[in-house]
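Anyone up for a design puzzle?
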């Protein structure tokens, strides 16, 4: 069954109580945040949404801020904007809304968008628990993995039975505060030393430039 797991950085699960350390240690992310103190996590396991649609939707919101991603997913649910399909483009129709991303193919995976909206809300609550600035959060990492397929059967002609599988997925995301880059301190430039031969060559070049020209 589908369920959402709270991020480890918030150290809470759905009930809001502290997680067991053994249970928390079992949950692994494919990547760790570059600055754990300024980041929050969220994860969904065995979500009953199509892997391919969720992959493309997650790819579209990667790098967006929390507010921008939420607005974009809401627009997808209302079919005002589309999700561009870049990898899984087989039998995918074309739409003029994909021009926004300089592509031609796109869809409106509403179910995947609603699941990601729920994960963003989960991550936001974890950020508030850590006293992070939610207005400055950015989707630093998001990954979608294939989960174990749900197997059912469909009945074919002549008494045969064929597979009828679902393709659920796992989703993980890490949101991190967008830190402004700090300029590096200027170092004292050491004077360059030349050999006598190099100095002579430089004088020769300078002299040649000054004397250059026709007779």
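Challenge accepted. My sequence:
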């Amino acid at each position: 069954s589908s369920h959402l797991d709270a991020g480890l950085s918030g150290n809470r699960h759905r009930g809001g109580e502290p997680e067991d350390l053994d249970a928390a240690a079992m949950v692994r992310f494919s990547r760790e945040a570059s600055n754990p103190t300024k980041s929050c996590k969220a994860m969904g396991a065995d979500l009953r949404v199509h892997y391919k649609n969720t992959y493309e939707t997650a790819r579209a919101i990667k790098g967006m801020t929390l507010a921008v991603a939420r607005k974009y997913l809401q627009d997808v649910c209302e079919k005002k904007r589309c999700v561009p399909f870049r990898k899984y483009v087989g039998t995918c129709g074309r739409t003029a809304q994909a021009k926004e991303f300089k592509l031609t193919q796109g869809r409106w995976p509403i179910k995947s968008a609603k699941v990601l909206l729920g994960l963003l809300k989960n991550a936001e609550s974890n950020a508030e628990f850590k006293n992070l600035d939610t207005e400055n959060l950015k989707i630093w990492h998001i990954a979608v993995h294939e989960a174990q397929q749900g197997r059912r059967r469909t009945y074919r002609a002549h008494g045969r039975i064929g597979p009828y599988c679902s393709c659920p997925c796992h989703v993980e995301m890490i949101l991190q505060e967008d830190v402004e880059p700090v300029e590096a301190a200027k170092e004292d430039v050491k004077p360059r030393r030349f050999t006598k031969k190099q100095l002579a060559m430089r004088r020769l070049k300078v002299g040649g430039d000054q004397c250059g020209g026709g007779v």
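A detail worth pointing out: Residues 1-25 have pLDDT under 50 and may be disordered.
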